[in-house]
């Protein structure tokens, strides 16, 4: 009985460790995507967002609008009309959002 309890405890510990590793990977991936997204915006001179977190949230909103059936052009027009970005930067913002957060919408 003691042997089976130790085996069970070892199995539970291993499963817990594997779960923790599995949970850490998506967070690291998200941080990497966020960093790449912000770096792409900065490289293009798009720095007038309220905060980095606000820009990241807006990038995810792009994907939500695409999920709802809007086209990238429609979303870029929404960005253009709801921000101080000129047309080119609005389109770039949508493209960077797609690349990092919802690549299934890449052309």
Pick out its properties.
single chain, 107 residues, mainly alpha, 4 helices, disordered N terminus
What does this entry look like structurally?
There is one protein chain. With 107 residues, the protein is mainly α. The protein has one domain (29-105). It has four helices and no strands. It has helices at 2-43, 52-67, 72-82, 87-101. Helix 1 runs antiparallel to helix 4 (87-101). The longest helix has 42 residues, at 2-43. It is globular. Mean pLDDT is 78; it is low at 1-29.
Overall shape: globular
Using only CA atoms, what is the Rg?
20 Å
Number of beta strands? 0
Low-confidence stretches: 1-29
Give the termini distance in whole angstroms: 60 Å
List the helices and strands and how they pair.
Elements: H1 2-43, H2 52-67, H3 72-82, H4 87-101
Short précis:
Residues 1-29 have low confidence and may be disordered. Helix 1 (2-43) runs antiparallel to helix 4 (87-101) and helix 3 crosses helix 4. Helices cover 79% and strands 0% of the residues.
